[in-house]
Amino acid sequence: MFGLDTKDTRSLIIVAILVVLAPFILNPFPAASAMAQFNAGYPDLMQKFVIFGIFAIGFNILFGLTGYLSFGHAAFLGVGSYSCVWMFKLLGYNVIPGILLSVVISGIFALAIGYVSLRRSGIYFSILTLAFAQMSFSLAYSVLSNPKFNLTNGETGLQVYANDPQWFHRDSLPDLPHLFGLSMRATHKLEIGAWEFQLNVGYYLCALVMLGCFYLAIRIFRSPFGLMLRAVKSNQQRMNYTGLNTRPYTLAAFVISGMYAGLAGGLLSAVDPLAGAERMQWTASGEVVLMTILGGAGTLIGPVLGAGFIKYFENIFSKINDHVLHSWFAFLPDGIEDFVVFLIHPFIGKGWHLTLGILFMLVVIFLPGGLVEGGQRIGNWVRGRKRRKSKTATKTEPAE
Amino acid sequence: MDAFLLQILNGLDKGSAYALIALGLTLIFGTLGVVNFAHGALFMIGAFCAVTLQRLFSLSFETIDPSQKDFLGNPLKVKTPYLESWLGPDAGGAIIDWSVPLAILFAIPIMITIGFVMERGLIKHFYKRPHADQILVTFGLAIVLQEIVKYFYGANPIQTPAPDALNGVANVGAMIGMDIVYPVWRIVYFFFSVLIIGGIFAFLQFTTFGMVVRAGMADRETVGLLGINIDRRFTIMFGIAAAVAGLAGVMYTPINPPNYHMGMDFLVLSFVVVVVGGMGSLPGAVLAGFLLGILESFASTTWATTTLPGINQIIIYVVAILVLLTRPRGLMGLKGVMED
């Protein structure tokens, strides 16, 4: 289907089903129950899942295929956010021009930065992209926000004010980002028994875009172009010796992944029209690296999994506090209960980054292929055991 | 002219922090061939060694002094540090006052131990893995170290003053007949870093150990074939590099109150410094550190910021990009170091 083979079609359909049914799947606990805090099915978080999924898919096109580790991808995310909000300010709250412009502008940025950075490879490339991203961050944070020329609004963040032109804004349209009149925040609440499900317009728009991006990524992975990028990863020198100039290919991959990041940034602004410079800081670039590696670099589904995993735990894990822990371990004797809570305390709530760091190190050390490789290993282990069982079964039945 | 010299001084003291961190980074690149993203965290841990020592020294007990009253009319509770009660108020007070310089002695063994543990426990297993993996695992380690420090010390910057004697300002221009007033501690920091840098270079240049290490940097395999245990020497160098970063952090605490993410802020700039200086070149790292520090301080003058607003924020990155594009190996880069 759509020019994909059966396996890819299957994974695309699985992702599509998961994404469409996410508001139900992520809300497994009744709204009033004690476990309701583990529900992730609220619009804000689900939007983050798919948007950072797009970001990570794009990053994976560069890192997973070519092996070039960019430490500055957040710059494109930020550029995308800013362009989208500028469209809101100039044209009005319709999201379509904003998202389109964010893709175009971040593509241009990626072309310029990639053209320079890709002259070097390996660690130099990482540091060059890092330098560019930090430079963009400083520019956005302070330089481009002076009263004479205020492009980014500095620390406050760029937002839409009442005296902005908004040429195409009509009174009949909502005063928030919308898609031809359909507000991004419009949410249909579906109550089934004790459960409450929220179907949000912004989420479904982002989800549709993400499915498109995922499809495109599959096509890139399976195309001759994708094969060329993999060849760059495995041995660039040999490619050069065969008389092939690899730079156009890597540059194309860089621009594509920059555009993905810009698109993610545009969508972030579309669901919440406020763009701040902290989106460009290098810790944000580090975050997308974490997502991709954690999920599994170079695999199709890995980055999406990683993005979902990190965003879920960032929001849910950090909500658990000592009080909640005490209620969980209430069945233990008092002294032991306190001790267990004391042991777990550093890793939850505000300490969630510690858990993330440890998890990330463990993944890099023991499971370089990320969660996807972990799943495969478990699968192989289970299957291998079955096979061994059948083998031993045949062995024990020799005809004597 | 005064302003000119003042900017150079400013640059030197910022540059000495860059140079010290970049020196440690380059030592690790050059010997082990590992890109250490956790180096900034080592700098931060050094700074927190100073904080810890100061807190240890000021551990105190409370006594009630009936002769004094607090504002509610109750007898005043007086806190006396144990040190003052043991050694007398003069000696004890002096030790507490000089806790930051004393932290140097405290930090060296700690930092060397941390360096050994890091190298033997983690980084050793990453020599054969690609550079991307090394970057990622040390990046993860940096996050973990940061969060551990944050758990114990909180997220706010902690004021750690320099000794009173070194806390004021001095007129450094008096000797040459000019009027340049500059904080004493920053001058101390500069001379301290020059001392450390000189020490490292002398160590590598004039001792047998240093000679072997330099030989190992040039050709590790041959040195190994000669029957020298080069891995152990490189581990020791890692410990020394960690100690250099830690000392840079200890002495930096009075200039900038330490917080848990100060390492990350310095790390990005130090990488830029290393790249500009040339990967694997120790003199290059030091030179680039001071050069970029001075450049940054000149870009922060009012004249520069009014001509080109914001130039002080981006000058280092612009220079780094220009250098990398025109001299790909950096200012003093060696052939064959991290070229792939």
Describe the 3D structure.
The complex is a heterodimer of chains A (about 400) and B (about 350). With about 400 residues, chain A is mainly α. In chain A, about 65% of the residues lie in helices and about 5% in strands. Chain A is built from 16 helices and eight strands. In chain A, the strands form four sheets. Chain A has a two-stranded antiparallel sheet with strand order 1-2. Chain A has a two-stranded antiparallel ribbon with strand order 3-8. The model of chain A is unreliable at about 395-400 (pLDDT under 50). Chain B is mostly helical. Chain B has helices at about 1-30, 40-55, 80-95, 100-120, 130-155, 185-205, 210-220, 220-225, 230-250, 260-275, 280-300, 300-305, 310-325; strands at about 60-70, 75-80, 170, 180-185. In chain B, strands 1-2 form a two-stranded antiparallel sheet. In chain B, a hairpin with a 5-residue loop joins strand 1 and strand 2. In chain B, helix 2 crosses helix 9 (about 230-250) and helix 10 packs across helix 11. The termini of chain B are far apart. The interface between A and B is large, with 42 and 40 residues.
